[in-house]
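Please, structure for the following, as tokens.
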Amino acid sequence: MSELILHHYPQSPFAEKARLMLGLKGLSWHSVLIPPVMPKPDLTALTGGYRRTPVLQVGADIYCDTALIARRLEREKAVPALFPEGREAIAAALAQYGDQVLFHHSIAINFQPEAVAARFAELPEEVMKGFVRDRQAMFEKGKVSRPSAEEALAQWPVLMRRLETQLERDGEFLLGDEPSIADLAWYHPLWFMAANAVVSVLLDDYPMIRAWMARIADLGQGASAKMDAAEAIRIAHDATPEELPEHGFVSTKGLTLGQSVTISPVDYGCDPVAGSLVHEASEEVVIAREDERAGLVHVHFPRIGYRVDAA
């Protein structure tokens, strides 16, 4: 089995979700730091243009989006389970709500001018402006419905009160006594809030949430070792993608194996990735692509939240 390589940067909420997945499962992994803004030439050599954070690399297989990374890590180590047996649909649905609704409320609140200024207070102003420009470009072509800061602030107490009540009544985690993918998906937007003094006060009135956040943080992040991007690309170049199942091909558009396609997110960061369709199943779509630096790689995407089109 190839080693796990996570391409990420420390301040990314979704990267924090991935790091905690690795911690919950007690896995060892290699850490490749990537820029928080474009361009990201080393990352896109592996992904073909997908720019969102994080990305998981296993040899010459590249996994995009934490929704699919979670399923790959579940295959790596089944216990502790991210998707508890018998509650898989509930865990996935709660995770999707956290990753979308709660995350976008958190982003709207954190992108108020005073919150952005506080987050970048110790950095040159041009760094802050560059980050804002990058995120504006990232969201401008997508179809995601984001609340305004005013709407998010008005709705935030509703979301927090629901979570506070759940934790008061139903165990230490969202699905009871053990953490799951649902907890990690609800945690990372709040982790992002807690890291900014201007908006972290919005968590102060919820002692059960604060205690739950401490329990999640205590899961740790597994055992990581630094790796530079050049080494990760070399590993991909020298590896062969994992063999794909011969069964389970389910095309919703009448596409065929080997056909040239593009895959892109539908919500934000909608840069298309081109390649040859090599697998399509209930949870994922896989394309093969060649890169002069990374060689032949298989890039894996979740089916939900992405569109596949004939090239």
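The mean pLDDT is 95. Strands lie at 4-8, 28-33, 55-58, 61-64, 223-226, 260-265, 273-280, 284-291, 295-302, 306-310.
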